Amino acid sequence: MDIDENRIADLEIYLTRMQRSILDKMFFIDKVFEPFKYILDFGCANGELIKAMQPMFPDYSYIGYDISSEMISAAKENVSDAEFFDDWDKIGIPFGESLINISSTIHEVYSYGSEEDVRIFWERVFDSGFRYVAIRDMSCPASMAETPCDAEKLDIIMNSGYAKWLESFENVWGKVHTQRDLAHFLLKYKYTQNWDREVHENYLPISTEELISRIPDGYRVVYRDGFTLPYISWQIRKDFGFDFTDNTHIKLILEKI
Question: GO molecular function, one example (predicted)?
């Protein structure tokens, strides 16, 4: 898979947005209890999560992986005492003694990768033998794709200052008819600085049920949480005056049996 780095029109804004969710990306650290030695941050970008975790949890060894050589170069400058790779096959840690953290990455694999890239991604996640797999990403229940969208909320958006962004969204994804469509727009409407990239990215490529169905028999779910990100709920209420409470995100921790 080769993500065109030029699609990120303003890299600084993109990275700043990622930094805002650093604490939430650490959700797994107080919920795993069997011993492990390594934390592998899959899709590490410039290494900010590793940089934040190192002083708080110094007993682990940290490894970052990202397919972007530009990001890996930035990560090596940002965090000098961790290992970073853009070649999966060069990662030499024992996966059986490791936790792999996959945060806001699955939707990018589906958005920019081929079917073969998606297959390889899940193979690396589940067939490598990681002690723990921590997942945090956007996902909604399948029922939202069958539920008509709230017409009153849609009307508010159509008569707001974000109407042109809704029109642009519908030019790419079609008319907003379901709650999933509405959620998809509301998850991305604020990211206008990198809009051309964001509007084409599929934030909700697989449902929560599809994600759960991918978990092999060799793993068990030890933590699961479907939720609406508090910051997004606050922003929607501030901009449109209504509450949006549908689950748009999921957190999972899987333990190897």
Answer: methyltransferase activity
Fold type of domain 5-256: Rossmann fold (3.40.50)
Across 162-189, average pLDDT: 98
What the block records as the tokens of 160 is 């707001």
% helix, strand, coil for the chain, step of 5: 50, 20, 35
Output the six-digit token pair for 57.
Answer: 């949890």
| Domain layout of the chain by residue ranges | 5-256
Longest CA–CA span in the chain (Å) reads: 55
pLDDT at 12: 54
Alpha helices, H only, 133-243: 151-158, 163-173, 179-188, 195-200, 208-213, 230-240
SS3 130: coil
Report which residue type is found at 178: T
Q: How many whole angstroms separate alpha carbon 18 and alpha carbon 77?
A: 18
How much is the pTM? 0.90
DSSP string, 75-96: HHHH-TTSEEES-GGG--S-GG
For residue 40, the cross-strand partners are 63, 100
Query: What is the spatial distance between Cα 127 and Cα 156, in angstroms, rounded to a whole number?
Result: 46
- Spell out a b/e string for 168-196, using b for 16 or more CB atoms within 10 Å of the CB, else e: bbeeeeeebebbbbbbbbbbbbbbeebbe
Tell me, what amino acid is at 163?
Answer: A
Pull the structure tokens for residue 179. 């709650």
